[in-house]
Amino acid sequence: MEKKLRRSKNQMISGVCAGIAEYFNMDPTIVRVAYVLLSVLSAGFPGIIVYLILMLVMPVEN
Fold this sequence. Notes:
Elements: H1 16-23, H2 28-41, H3 45-57
């Protein structure tokens, strides 16, 4: 079975971080914390833009 990157139904906002975690077989909490830390350390703005782009590009899980 081919793995595809999709937004997850296990979502806090739109399922992007949980979808990435499922793709890499990780805990969604670790991906969410890493995203928040990365966004805060990079002044927040680039992280928000990347999240919004991924939210629009990634299809929703069936």
